[in-house]
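In response to the reviewer comment on reproducibility (Comment 2.3), we provide here a single inverse folding case reported in full, input and output, so that an independent group could reproduce the run without further information from us. The structure tokens appear first.
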């Protein structure tokens, strides 16, 4: 038997959207989803597949690539594309056409223990999302036993900071500019009231 290794090409694939492209309208239009998912998210995937081909990262999972390139100056481009793929998949799951409303009991208790009320948690999410200067993300994370709201710039992820992401909101301008132009607050309030997927956040607590 030959010991020859078969050359493997492991491509990162674009995960299907968890709903139709018009399902989040009118809060987020099909037009925005078309560019955001079809061009931006896919673009990061195409870039990453090219960047890692034939390198030591070629057969690593997305999580591993993110963790192994984080904070390394000579790997910034790979980190940015890998983390943006992860962040966007997580964002699509953080939204739901039937979102908003009350979190499931197990999550609600944790929110109340950390922020006193669900409204206070939503206000803090909106506040960090508003004060992220330039491109980035707002996150609800589990830090030890407590819930926290944090922001990250550009492609940065709480994954590399020892906390567990529960949900995220994209505050890059491409996430809202077609629908809201410069009105980031209107985008955030509509997402928090109508789309935020507390069930997904509760599942991530496990
Ligand atoms: Mn985005």
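Designed residues, in position order:
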């Amino acid at each position: 038997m030959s010991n020859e290794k078969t050359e493997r090409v492991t491509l990162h694939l674009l995960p299907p959207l968890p709903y139709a492209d018009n399902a989040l309208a009118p809060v987020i239009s099909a037009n925005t989803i078309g560019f955001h998912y079809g061009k931006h998210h896919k673009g990061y995937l195409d870039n990453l597949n090219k960047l890692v081909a034939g390198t030591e990262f070629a057969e690593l999972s997305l999580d591993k690539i993110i963790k192994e390139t984080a904070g390394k100056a000579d790997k910034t481009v790979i980190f940015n594309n890998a983390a943006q793929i992860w962040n966007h998949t997580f964002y699509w799951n953080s939204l739901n056409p039937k979102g908003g409303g009350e979190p499931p009991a197990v999550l609600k208790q944790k929110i109340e223990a950390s922020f006193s009320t669900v409204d206070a948690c939503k206000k803090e999410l909106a506040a960090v999302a508003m004060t992220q200067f330039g491109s980035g993300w707002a996150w609800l994370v589990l830090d030890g036993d407590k819930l926290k709201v944090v922001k990250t710039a550009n492609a940065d992820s709480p994954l590399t900071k020892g906390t567990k992401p529960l949900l995220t909101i994209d505050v890059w301008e491409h996430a809202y500019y077609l629908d809201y132009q410069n009105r980031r607050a209107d985008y955030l309030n509509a997402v928090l009231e109508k789309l935020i997927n507390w069930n997904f956040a509760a599942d991530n607590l496990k």
